[in-house]
Amino acid sequence: MSASESTTSSRPTPDRILDAAEKLFSEQGFAATTLRQVTRATGMSQPNIYNHFEDKQALYDGVLERAMGLLFGTIEAAVQREGATSAHAIEATGEVLGRDPGLARLLYHEVARGAPDLERVCRGWSWSLLAAALADLDADEANRFEDEDHSLLLVAFFNLVIGSFATAHAFHEHTADETHEAESIEHKTRFLVRTWQRIVTLHD
Fold first, then answer.
1. Which fold has domain 8-201?
2. Cα dist. 141→17, 159, 164 in Å?
3. What secondary structure letter does DSSP report for 145?
4. At what angle do helices 13-28 and 101-112 cross, to 10 degrees?
5. Binning pLDDT at 50, 70 and 90, where does residue 7 land?
6. How far apart are the first and last CA of the chain?
7. Domain map of the chain by residue range?
8. Band of pLDDT at residue 176, cut at 50, 70 and 90
9. What single DSSP character describes residue 141?
10. Of 108, 77, 80, 82, which is closest to residue 92 (Cα–Cα)?
11. The pLDDT of residue 145
């Protein structure tokens, strides 16, 4: 299942292309994925793909923009609610990644290649992630981090929350909740909330 969910035959052509490309990019990464593979996955001709995306880079940008808009838009909506905490952001993230675990792997593939497109595509979304990471600290003077630690806090939040979904399949022999059933996702989300709360309250 990809970032948008519906019956394949009823979806607009660009979305069908993005669905197939997202799956391939999340499984193989940018370099290993070819437009020929996308055409086979969609059942379309290559000229039809080019009618909507001029090249592989444009298709990849479209996949990233849609996926990051969904993920970070959900986080932003969660942290903008009155009384929101990082727990709400983690729960919102778990809801998105539980439905589409390939999205987390897509992010990790991009980071592994040096993230050349991530900052450009995400634009201001990283600030939503930072706001989520700092939500609990803003209300607790005693537990606030130094300003110079905020970027490190963002990295920690990203790797704890998104990394747990991106890498779970690699540890399936050692974990009991590798499935994407609702109960398993809820269990993982509760664990992440507890872990993050310990991180932000037990620092020096």
1. Tetracycline Repressor; domain 2 (1.10.357)
2. 48, 25, 29
3. P
4. 60
5. very low
6. 42
7. 8-201
8. low
9. G
10. 77
11. 72
